[in-house]
Amino acid sequence: MKRFGFGVLIVVMSLSINVFGNNIPVKIKVKYLDAGMMGMHGATVPIVEVISASNSIIIKDVIGNRGNCPMTAYRKAQFPQKLKFGELATAGFKMGCNLIEIDVVTNQGTWSWSIGN
Fold first, then answer.
1. Of 46, 61, 78, 107, which is most buried by a Cβ count within 10 Å?
2. What is the residue range of 24's domain?
3. What's the pLDDT score for residue 21?
4. How far apart are CA 93 and CA 74, in angstroms?
């Protein structure tokens, strides 16, 4: 596997998810970063980017696997977060979590996505 930049983190998978025709005010992107910088070769860190498709929205929480995949304390402390159209909030989850479901809680409601198969 090639290492890019300082070889600290490598994006091993990036997944963009959109739901069409439902006027959902957020979009998400899921990325898995290699944790090799911490000596944990083969382990990954799931990252969820929440992108505003609304002029103004407050992201209250991002929940992985119905709460079974907790956000890191550092990322959790950054919520709630107010976003304008096109801005994003980043949610980092516990190393090794395999995200299969993501819930985004906002001031405009809660939306859920299934990831993978």
1. 46
2. 11-114
3. 44
4. 10
